[in-house]
Automatic annotation (TrEMBL), chains A, B:
<dbReference type="GO" id="GO:0005524">
    <property type="term" value="F:ATP binding"/>
</dbReference>
<keyword id="KW-0547">Nucleotide-binding</keyword>
<dbReference type="Pfam" id="PF13393">
    <property type="entry name" value="tRNA-synt_His"/>
</dbReference>
<dbReference type="InterPro" id="IPR004154">
    <property type="entry name" value="Anticodon-bd"/>
</dbReference>
<dbReference type="InterPro" id="IPR036621">
    <property type="entry name" value="Anticodon-bd_dom_sf"/>
</dbReference>
<dbReference type="GO" id="GO:0005737">
    <property type="term" value="C:cytoplasm"/>
</dbReference>
<dbReference type="InterPro" id="IPR041715">
    <property type="entry name" value="HisRS-like_core"/>
</dbReference>
<feature type="binding site">
    <location>
        <position position="121"/>
    </location>
    <ligand>
        <name>L-histidine</name>
    </ligand>
</feature>
<dbReference type="InterPro" id="IPR004516">
    <property type="entry name" value="HisRS/HisZ"/>
</dbReference>
<dbReference type="InterPro" id="IPR045864">
    <property type="entry name" value="aa-tRNA-synth_II/BPL/LPL"/>
</dbReference>
<dbReference type="InterPro" id="IPR015807">
    <property type="entry name" value="His-tRNA-ligase"/>
</dbReference>
<feature type="binding site">
    <location>
        <position position="274"/>
    </location>
    <ligand>
        <name>L-histidine</name>
    </ligand>
</feature>
<keyword id="KW-0030">Aminoacyl-tRNA synthetase</keyword>
<dbReference type="Pfam" id="PF03129">
    <property type="entry name" value="HGTP_anticodon"/>
</dbReference>
<feature type="domain" description="Aminoacyl-transfer RNA synthetases class-II family profile">
    <location>
        <begin position="32"/>
        <end position="389"/>
    </location>
</feature>
<keyword id="KW-0963">Cytoplasm</keyword>
<feature type="binding site">
    <location>
        <position position="107"/>
    </location>
    <ligand>
        <name>L-histidine</name>
    </ligand>
</feature>
């Protein structure tokens, strides 16, 4: 009668069990690096995105006017929100600020495999350090998270690039406006073209670069330069301090990844650009090395200017956002997606009027930390046992009127089907985790 | 430069630490009862609420038209969504279905203490059982959650009522239309008046009942009947099977709460009605017994008709929703709100060019499950130590160039300030949790 909206997902318990396990692993990994959880609103003022995130994201915004006449948007990403939060507290926060959170975001996109209108991201950010160690820690966290999820070295790679190498190179190509061969390049558009380069034909890529102001010769030269992955050649070609310093920064980050134990996952890949406008330094994307997951699994990078542009003190920043859908594709491809099975420690089964004793036993088992279900539907033996099986109960405690008359309950191990009677006063008694084997 | 929206909240790490601890306790409690986590969308079709939830909630909806022309709403509550999910899977789901989830909801309300436009709820529901054990388990879960949070018996009470007692009583007052004294009563409006009765003056309450169709004499009589809490008198007054059966159901639920160990938290309170229209049976609200938290902390009840009205098979249901803001007020009042402090197991401090060793030690400690931070900002000894103090590091491992030349690092216990040197090859070595005390 009511349908779910397209691009939105319902997660039933089995699927959610697996998702929760993955999420717990990712968040525990972030926690061990000292990233601290923050909580953030689902709605923000629309203009926060219009100003900073780039037109692509704005086209996809869920925006509306609230009952108070405010132009608001469902948050399409976390970065502007945490930037706002850093600005709001100003100098109160001790640096580096290391934050993590997992929550849904919304974009009105074309729905396809691994892409939904409501998606979940774990965002991990460091604010207040411009040093390469911060970039390296973000990469190390991301690699650790994947490794802890069960992925092996060689199953994923981080393609690492640097926004200011791209920007500096484009600046050099444009010239300083003092020569007749100078051209007018829209750097944002050109970088967006680079971001699309792997997804389009070469000619289309050149057209996009041409639209951004490059001549076709320049577009080919630019493409050759990037695909050479030759940093020295880039520095020489550009001949500017800007490119030299960007290359040096990229090299220092790669050096730091060596010490941080993540260098082996990193590949230099200058065609990696990221779609969002606010990146300033190192950017990277995670890919499935088998290529079976064809798009980037997730990505991140450095955005040193965003907080100042939000009215805060100059605060360098770097982060990564792991999206749920592509991460699931990668895990499934690698056979690392968890089993989707419910777990139940005990089912306490009632036969006849034994609710008081069954409820007491359920309480005692729960107080020992176990997952315990009992009859809520006044059902018979068979259908209770069948339900216990459905929820994968490990042990069934049968509380029957006749057994109780003898002061006993029956403990049944579901895997083997074996069972034995136990004095009701001794169940659970001294046992932290009473099982069939404890009573035979 | 950009401001947060009114009624929305940013949670910084210290506050979030406490919130997460509370949430973990509530969810772990639900988990031990075998409630299974589900994940649900933030947007639904607007008409799902217009049809079923009552006008109050609809006035407060964040609604808009999406880019595909759909009328959508930010979910103001979970119940319609989980009802939709139960209908969608139909007979596939084995009963009883026991679900839990925690997530934000949105209502455009007047912002005040304990009430925000974005708020978080843990929803716990049982679908597929009409038996009193299901109601009792919901109450038992709620009491357990509060007890596990550190509240004591007597610090909170569940005021328990029954919608069909109210409905049946009003039906009896209206008469069957065959007599001149019969009146036309809008039962929904009258029940909403009962829901407001504790918050308004008596005269205003009678006005509301009068607006719903009762005469002023009937309003007073109705009020007297409810406040007497005399179930036998109610049955006698109404003289209908409907009220008799509702009273009998309420008594059976209260009996079940006895076995489920939650009877001592329950008070019969017929003036408790709950605001939402879809309730059909037992309803309850949790109150701070000191009265310091003046409004209901949370509430729940039985809604046996909702799923059928959504086009599903007749599926009785009962649930509770714990809201974050009032729960925090109650916990704070009772001194049970957790300390808001960051915890860090180790800070690995670098002096000079020791990044490779420091990073190796940090990795080794993290792989043992500890929370470990290290320098990301190329800072000196003093400012690193001060940062370690800010994040409450328990142990600082100082990796200095000079110490390293002797093959040693220094282990410093922050609480006492005591420190000792340790061979770098033995740190962490065999130790799962190496501390100062292990090396002296």
């Amino acid at each position: 009668m009511y349908d779910r909206l397209k691009g939105f997902r319902d997660f039933y318990p089995e699927e959610m069990t697996a998702r929760r396990e993955v999420l717990d692993t990712v968040e525990a990994t972030a926690g061990r690096y000292g990233f601290r959880e923050v909580g953030t609103p689902a709605l923000e003022r629309t203009r926060m995105y219009v100003d900073k995130s780039g037109e692509e994201i704005v086209d996809e915004l869920y925006t509306f006017e609230d009952k108070g006449g405010r132009d608001v948007a469902l948050t399409p990403e976390l970065t502007p929100t945490v930037a706002r939060m850093v600005v709001a507290k100003g100098q109160e926060l001790s640096k580096p600020i290391k934050w993590v959170s997992t929550r849904p975001f919304w974009r009105y996109e074309q729905v396809q495999q691994g892409r939904f209108r409501e998606f979940y991201q774990t965002n991990v950010d460091v604010f207040g350090s411009a040093e390469p160690e911060a970039d390296a820690e973000i990469l190390a966290f991301a690699a650790d998270a994947l490794t802890n999820l069960g992925l092996s070295e060689g199953e994923f790679e981080f393609r690492v690039s640097h926004r200011d190498i791209l920007g500096g190179l484009l600046e050099s190509m444009a010239g300083d406006g003092g020569s007749e061969t100078d051209v007018d390049i829209d750097v944002r558009d050109a970088i967006r073209a680079v971001d699309k380069s792997a997804k389009v034909e070469r000619n289309e890529y050149y057209d996009l670069l041409h639209d951004a102001g490059l001549s076709y010769d320049q577009a080919r030269e630019f493409d050759d330069l990037l695909s050479s992955q030759d940093l020295d050649a880039l520095v020489e070609f550009a001949g500017t301090d800007r490119v030299e310093s960007a290359v040096s920064n990229l090299r220092r980050v790669l050096d730091a990844t060596e010490d941080f134990g993540v260098r082996e996952h990193c590949t230099l890949s200058l065609e990696t650009a990221r779609g969002l406008d606010y990146y300033t330094g190192v950017v990277f994307e995670c890919f499935d090395t088998t290529g079976e997951v064809s798009r980037a699994v997730f990505g991140g990078g450095r955005y040193d200017d965003l907080i100042e542009s939000f009215g805060g003190q100059s605060t360098p920043a770097v982060g990564v956002a792991l999206g749920d859908a592509t991460l699931q594709l990668l895990c499934e491809r690698a056979g690392a997606w968890p089993d989707e099975e419910l777990a139940t420690d005990y089912y306490v089964l009632t036969v006849g009027d034994t609710r008081d004793v069954a409820a007491r036993i359920a309480r005692d088992l729960r107080s020992r930390g176990h997952v315990v279900e009992t009859d809520l539907s006044d059902r018979g033996f068979g259908s209770q046992l069948s339900y216990a099986d459905t929820v994968n109960a490990e042990t069934v405690v049968i509380v029957g009127e006749q057994d109780l008359a003898n002061g006993e309950v029956t403990v049944k191990e579901m895997a083997s089907g074996e069972q034995t009677t136990v004095p009701v006063d001794e169940f659970p008694g001294e046992h932290d985790e009473p099982r069939y084997g404890d009573f035979v």
